Amino acid sequence: MSVWAQIWTIARLELFRVFFSKRSFWVYGLALFPVVIFTGHAIDSKFRQQRWGEGSRITPVMMDSFREGATGEEILEKAGTPQRDRKWTRRQRRDEDDEGPDRRRFMTFFDGKRQAQLNFSDGKLTSVRISPLLNFEEDRKIFAGVFQYFYLRLGIFFGCLGIFINLFRGEMLDCSLHYWFLAPVKREVLLMGKYLAGLIAAASIFTAGAALCFGALLFPHESGEVAAYLNSVGYEHLAWYALAAALGCVGYGSVFLAAGLLLRNPIVPAVVLLLWEASNSFLPDILQKLSVLHYLQSVCPVPAPMNSNAPALLRMLLSPAAPSSVWVAIAGLLGVTALVLFAASQAVRRLEINYGTE
Amino acid sequence: MAVYKRGYQRYAGDRTGYLQRLLVLPRFAWRRLLDQKLVTSLLMLSLFWPLLCILFIYLANHSELWAGFAGGFKRILSVNGKFFAVFMNVQSVFALILSAVVGPGLVAPDLANNALPLYFSRPLSLRDYIAARMLVLAGMLSLVTIIPGLLLMAIQGGMAGWGWLWDNGRLFWGVVIGFAIWIVILSLVAMTCSAYVKWRAVAGGLVLAFFFVVGGAAEMVNAVFRVDWASMFNPGFAIEAVWMEFLGVELPPEKPGAYECALSLGAMCTGLLWILTRKLRPVEVVK
Amino acid sequence: MSATEIVFNDVSKFYGEVLGVNRVDLRIPPGITSLVGPNGSGKTTLMNLMAGLVHANNGTLRVRGISPRNPGELMKILGYATQYDAAPRGSTGFDFVLAGLLLHGYSKPDAEKRAWAALERVSLTQAGNRKVAAYSKGMRQRVRLAQAIAHDPLVLILDEPLNGLDPLVRAETIALFREYAAGGRHVILSSHVLQEVDVFSDQVILIANGMIVAEGQIRNVREEMTEHPSQYLLQCRDAARVASLLFGETHVVEAKIDADGKTLLVMTKNRDAFSASLQQIALSGEEIESVLAADENVDALYEYLIGGRK
Questions:
Q1: C223, C242, C261 — which closes off a domain?
Q2: Does a structural domain hold residue C186?
Q3: Is there a contact between C59 and A145 (Cβ–Cβ < 8 Å)?
Q4: How far is C99 from chain A (nearest CA, A)?
């Protein structure tokens, strides 16, 4: 039996357990939650499009002609019946110099693609906010943000933590690792087999999640717009996102596999890695290259927007590292992975079965 | 008369009180935890930030040391709600890490080794068990939250005059109650995660994942739906909002307010407690 | 290095500051070898060392010429039923045995055939498709044995293999060990059921506090123990008369007559001299119905050699 056949046999035996064990179901939740959110957004957008399309419409030129200071009656005379028209009175004025109640009015108009929200105070138009019902470019940026902040930093990170720690440390806790050690295979081969099983499972779950999410992103938008995007850079973007997700599993998987072999408490490497990855952009160039996230961000086709209002706990995680070229990034990530797997292979050779100390 | 009736004599001596009995579990747990190098190292590390804060308080109360600097410096160097908000934010991260390290070891081994029937065959109810385990965490987490907070208060009170404490009673209660809420949330999350997976190694990761992933998911909902309300489901943001209200610091106006956030945290705690009581059953499941 | 023996050469194993086994020198020939010792004496450590599940701190160890640090080669000839009462999550008895065989490189049809054959040998065919987690203690013991023998190893190591087995299966299992050993293979086992070990072992290794106390065939071991008098139980028509004749011999240190007047317990320092004396008494006309060595079983050895160290 060749080494490759042994690796594949081990991976095959392990795959079923990785994919279908109750312990890994939450990983599916991590991968599919963004899909649910984007699908919800798509359905919501479709409904809104349908609802607003049923009401009155104005021309785009008319929408752009709304100016502050106009009265409500002038607007109605020019644009006709609005989609919504609501009036109310505020007892307390923001501006304390004025007296009497503040009469407020709010109207919305729709031109087939955009919605205008008009706010009136004492009969005068005070603000106009025009926003497209669907903004494909903005949605793509949001997807980039979700992919980098949620998938890469959280989903794949914690998903790989769950899957890869389970491969050795989990079996030690279950007192079943010795069955693998009693197989006529070298420990390094066993390590590679188990790593391959974890990798196939994690990469399938997260690349499928990212691809589904990408599909949900495209779903509510006009077919012409989507086709133009796909024919230009869309498929390429999808491929890069899928590659980044798979590479994330390659990198984080190797780190957590090694951590499961070297340390008894996986929380320690999890915390250290989380802090390391978060603080990476503050480190010198040479140290930045020892981060999985650094390479993954370089592979992503669209840079993620930074949300300055994010809470402290998340802000800590949101510091982007300076990107490398894509091929350097891939080679670097594979290099880091090879290094980590080499360390893991040394550890697995020394590993002893002593369940009493777990 | 049956032999056992003649031979058996029930213990009729004095017994310790309820609280003393309840404290048996925390006492042993604390001793075991403080023997762990990882826990003591974390505790040491978490005192670094309070030390910096003490330095800050010293500087703020010795204006002669920065007399030559511009006026803006005075505004920065003031011990107020914002100062304590920053202090609480940083310490809350240490408390989170500590709970992820300490928490899972309290419940998961009892469940994994079917030890609950042993506990519940003593005069100890499920409520007592949860309370005792929470006390362990509360004790440990207080060391990095409430106690350093009170220490800072005392130092500031000592330097600025005790009248400062009287004038800033809101900050005092903000630190104590704010941290107490955070401790309850952390304890419930840590215990529920470990009761849910029954596996110490994964439970710690799940505790971290709960805060980071739920936070990330809430922000994702905000971004995708272009709304702000989902932040109240982000435990990190929600607790910060509650603290800000206690400390009298303004929140971003577009975000959910402290009361909505408190409600969301309350619902979260109720849910966690429900799962915990369902999982902590003194039965041995043989599949 | 011998290609037919298991050789320990000055092997020590420490778990941190705790002693596992200390300076073990052993040569184990093929046949049934029993490791006997109290809990924590180092039996499992010796077995784990042979299987490469733990590594020696000092010394060298070869199993039929193969180092335990080379699992790729060693596990082809070694089967080990450990004491750990766990199987991979969710696996059935059949899956459990099959997985091991697939890792040995058998094709799937071959592996399936061998897995069923192994389950049949331990009388588990009917329960083969049930989950191991639902097995009783005895069934789990047997499925581990099936997994260990499925690939027909030359060295079979069994940690407490008779624990939890009912008498019928126990007899079948012992027959299996005998059959295995008869083919020139190693069967190494540990057990606390000393009478059983006594019955079927070719040799015994007594171990206490991580050190080898005695090794060899039970009878030979007993003969080398000069500090403890040997005990014989005699059945004779006139026990008092035989006792008085025996007391004349210098090697006899004690004799006890049972209340029935026909049973005599004799303690002697010299087994050969006792044998000769007994022959003379019999020739003189005293009727002796039976002679039984009362302390040649492992229990007695255990008591003599290890009892004081417990």
A1: C223
A2: yes
A3: no
A4: 7
In this structure, is residue C187 part of a structural domain? Answer: yes
Q: Is the dihedral angle over the CA atoms A180, A186, A192, A196 positive or is it negative? A: negative
Question: Residue C147 maps to which CATH number?
Answer: 3.40.50.300
Same domain, C239 and C143: no
Domains and CATH numbers, chain A: 3-46+135-357 (no CATH), 55-132 (3.30.1450.10)
Q: Chain A: residue nearest C147 by CA? A: A179
Q: If you average pLDDT over every residue of chain B, what do you get?
A: 87
Bridge partners of B43, per DSSP, are none
CA–CA distances in Å: residue C72 to residues A306, A333, C6, C52, C198: 52, 31, 18, 11, 34
Q: Which domain holds residue C82?
A: 6-223
**Residue at a domain's end among C223, C242, C276:** C223
What ranges in C104-204 are assigned the alpha helix state H? Answer: 108-121, 137-149, 167-182, 194-200
* Inter-residue contact C93 to C132 (CB < 8 Å): yes
Question: pLDDT tens-digit profile of A54-101?
Answer: 778 888 888 888 888 888 888 888 888 888 888 888 665 555 556 667
Same domain, C239 and C126: no
Q: Is the ipTM of this complex over 0.85?
A: no
Helix B146-160 to helix B48-60 angle (10° resolution) is 20
Amino acid at A281: S
Number of other CB atoms surrounding residue C129 within 10 Å: 11
Residue B10 neighbours by CB under 8 Å, 6+ apart: none
Do C247 and C160 share a structural domain? no
Q: Rounded distance, CA A324 to CA B212, Å?
A: 27
DSSP C17: T
pLDDT in tens, C183-192: 889 999 997 6
Q: Structurally, how many domains does chain C consist of?
A: 2
Shortest alpha-carbon distance between residue A267 and chain B (Å): 6
Q: What are the tokens at C99?
A: 């997985």
Query: By the CB < 8 Å criterion, does A175 face chain B?
Result: no
Same domain, C159 and C275: no
Among B197, B199, B284, B287, the residue to mutate for chain C (most C Cβ within 10 A): B287
Strands (E), A162-255: none
Note whether C208 and C254 are same-domain residues. Answer: no
pTM of the model: 0.80
Which residues in chain B are closer than 8 Å to A33, comparing Cβ atoms? 217, 220
